[in-house]
């Protein structure tokens, strides 16, 4: 009794259009849905989604930093705006090198490089706070933005590669849906700054210590 080979599925996860003998495949195959992810890639998908949220938070750091630096240092509005120039300038300068990095060594190396560079930039704020010089803060912020630039350039195509081509758009939309919560988290933190201070000082909300009633 001769055996019959199983129908061959396409690389994108779609069911075969016909069986090995030219007949239509079973009805159960037509009812199957294309998987969102390849087997064993769920952990990586969750990790990359965390990166999307992280750089959403980092992208919203520039506005409060401009206001903070104007209070701490004696500078005009143009000098304070160098914060945004340092951040978005890193995106401009590092986008093409990040693409070359991904082409040469792959998306995983790009992700790790971006995370490492952003971490170094974040830790650089500690010595910058000891030095209390404006340039040191700008260098630290540039490091964070450079890492986020490489990270974002690597994460988008990496998400696409984690599953069949037919569901690539769904995966990318799912990952990018977690970037706005990063913005909203940072905005909510700023909006709740005064209530938090009121709880720490024990003063009723809307009143300042030693201020008028």
Brief rundown of the structure:
By secondary structure, the chain is mainly alpha-helical. It is built from eleven helices and no strands.
For the structure shown, list the relevant keywords:
11 helices; Growth Hormone, Chain: A; 213 residues; disordered N terminus; mainly alpha
Description of the structure:
With 213 residues, the protein is mainly α. The chain has a domain at 42-181: MFS general substrate transporter like domains (Growth Hormone, Chain: A, Up-down Bundle). It is built from eleven helices and no strands. Helix 6 (107-123) packs antiparallel against helix 8 (134-160). The protein is elongated and about 65 Å long. It starts with 26 loop residues before the first helix and ends in a 12-residue tail after the last helix.
Reading the helices and strands in chain order gives HHHHHHHHHHH
Low-confidence stretches: 1-9, 24-31, 188-198, 200-213
Number of helices: 11
Look up the CATH topology of the domain at 42-181: Growth Hormone, Chain: A
Quote the average pLDDT. Answer: 76
For the record, give the distance between the C-alpha atoms at the N and C termini, rounded to a whole number: 96 Å
Oligomeric state of the chains present here: single chain
Helix content: 55-70%
Q: What would you call the shape? A: elongated
Rg of Cα set:
25 Å
CATH architecture of the domain at 42-181: Up-down Bundle
The CATH class label of the domain at 42-181 is: Mainly Alpha
> Biggest sheet: strands, sense, closure?
none
Query: What is the percentage of strand-forming residues?
Result: under 5%
Write down how many β-strands occur, each being a DSSP E stretch of 2 or more residues.
Answer: 0
SS-based class: mainly alpha
CATH superfamily of the domain at 42-181: MFS general substrate transporter like domains
């Amino acid at each position: 009794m001769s055996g019959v080979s199983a129908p061959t599925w396409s690389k994108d996860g779609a069911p075969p259009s016909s069986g090995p003998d030219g007949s239509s495949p079973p009805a159960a195959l037509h009812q199957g849905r294309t998987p969102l992810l390849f087997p064993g890639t769920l952990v990586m998908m969750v990790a990359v989604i965390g990166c999307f949220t992280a750089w959403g938070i980092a992208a919203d750091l520039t506005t409060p930093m401009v206001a903070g630096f104007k209070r701490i240092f004696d500078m005009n509005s143009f000098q304070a705006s160098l914060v945004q120039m340092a951040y978005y300038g890193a995106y401009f300068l590092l986008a093409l090198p990040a693409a070359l990095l991904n082409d040469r060594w792959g998306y995983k190396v790009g992700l790790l490089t971006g995370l490492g560079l952003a971490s170094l930039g974040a830790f650089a704020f500690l010595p910058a706070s000891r030095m209390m010089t404006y340039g040191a803060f700008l260098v630290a912020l540039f490091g964070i933005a450079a890492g986020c630039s490489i990270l974002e350039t690597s994460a988008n195509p990496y998400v696409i590669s984690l599953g069949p081509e037919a569901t690539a758009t769904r995966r990318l939309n799912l990952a990018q849906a977690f970037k706005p919560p990063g913005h909203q988290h940072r905005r909510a933190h700023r909006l709740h700054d005064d209530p938090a201070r009121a709880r720490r000082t024990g003063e009723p909300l809307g009143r300042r210590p030693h201020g008028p009633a």
